Amino acid sequence: MSSMINDEHKHSALTAKIIGCAMTVHSALGNGFQEFIYQNAMEIEMGDAGISFSREQQMPVYYKERQIGLRRADFLVEGVVCVELKAVIQLQDVHLAQAINYLEAYDLEVGLLINFGARSLRFKRVTNRSFKQRAQGNPAIPPSRKSE
Questions:
Q1: What's the whole-model pTM score?
Q2: What CA–CA distances, in Å, run from 22 to 30, 36, 62, 96?
Q3: Helices (DSSP H) in 78-125: which residue ranges?
Q4: Would you state the pLDDT for residue 7?
Q5: What pLDDT was estimated at residue 3?
Q6: Dmax (CA) of the chain
């Protein structure tokens, strides 16, 4: 797993631990199950690994200081990494866009898009440096929170 750690990437050690959990789940279950099965297994695996997370935490989305909707990522890990799981044969651009939208909704810089649907586990690291929700006046995003 140490080969997945890249100090140039923010939260690399944490994302490597999350990917390790996903690899464990995928090797145990394989592909072919529905997404919620992998979500439940990841919840168990990350808990066993001592990773703190919240599952499907709602985050309001704001535009011009008015709430226009809610987003709910699969996992918010240690308050800094958004994890979105898929169980599709092949990831599409729309899945990547969705993962980036979650980062923007949560005003986070780092996320993982993990696909359990292929024969071998696939994952993509996604980043957001725009922090648009803070600029739109979202009160759920503390103005003092800095990207770490």
A1: 0.82
A2: 11, 14, 32, 18
A3: 93-106
A4: 54
A5: 46
A6: 46
